[in-house]
Amino acid sequence: MPLVTARFRALTGTSGTIDTMLRDKNVIRDVEELEQALSEPTEALIRSLAQLEGDIIILGVGGKMGPSLAHMARRASDLSGTKRRVIGVSRFSASTLESQLRSWGVETIRCDLLNRAELSHLPDVPNVVYMAGRKFGSLGNESLTWAMNSFLPGLVSEKYAHSRIVAFSTGNVYGLSPVSHGGSREGDLPNPLGEYAMSCLGRERIFEHFSHSNDTKMAIIRLNYAAELRYGVLLDVAIRGFTHRPVPLSMGYLNVIWQGDASAMSLQAFGNVSVPPNILNISGPELLSVRRVAEGFGERFHEAILFEGTESDDALLSNAQKAFELFGRPRIDAERLMDWIADWVSRDGSTLAKPTHFEERAGRF
User: Fold this and answer.
1) pLDDT per residue over 233-268, tens digit each?
2) SS3 of 190, please?
3) Quick check: is 207 in a domain?
4) Given the DSSP bridges, would you call strands 314-315 and 177-178 parallel, antiparallel or unpaired?
């Protein structure tokens, strides 16, 4: 640990720790500063990647979370003094992303993962982050959703049978659970609602099958509402409040986690892979009321909040206590994240223009 701290101080010229620096931020001024915050590695992650052998490849790096996760892996590896390649794989339909990743020291490979020939030519790497998947747009094109979410994991499992695999999934596989239960746990039986959630459970089952048959060590990350300033449930609620549009209460409760904390925990999961796959809920510790969140933004904006509908006694909720015991609790709590988002929205900060549809209770995405 003293070596990690000394290296961090040498590179940054500061006497503070990484975790404290992020918590002490009162505002995030622009996209560049946001990216630095999103990719800021925890000290626990730096220690973890110092012990991890081999390069890291991230399949599906082009999504909302992938670029910052790849950047974090690069920064944490450098801070730990570990020489490794961090490789991002995507079709890279957004032309600027590839150059951005390269500027951070992340190698890039263009690949259509559903193309067997292209997949076969990817380098053999001992550590695989699987982030490929499809959610929005599933309604009306269910076959592609199933191909991406359930068929592709089989191809990847065959290609990387001798690697460690950390595969992203979703808390949607649990279905709705009573608010009084405090969130679904890893041992609860899945009850997916809608084809998207069913295809995600299919993804997990395919990985589980190949974990057993090939003795491949894996972890499955059931992520529930990662959030940042340009995307996420909290941003959706904030924008509705700021623009005087009603906030839906049909899904009356939720969990969120700062995306940077979700990335750090997910990368640490390489130290906790197993056969069969180790299932980990990644989410925030707070059970948040949508009504109270909206009212909190109203107080920050000095605006009255409009509501529509009423709260149900069940919701998509996850209990992430197992992950907290392994990796520690998130650095950023919901109140700090709401402060950042309220400031961002009030200054007309850029967004990804991708609503989460958090209010959807029938699983239609």
Assistant:
1) 999 999 999 999 999 999 999 999 999 999 999 999
2) coil
3) yes
4) antiparallel
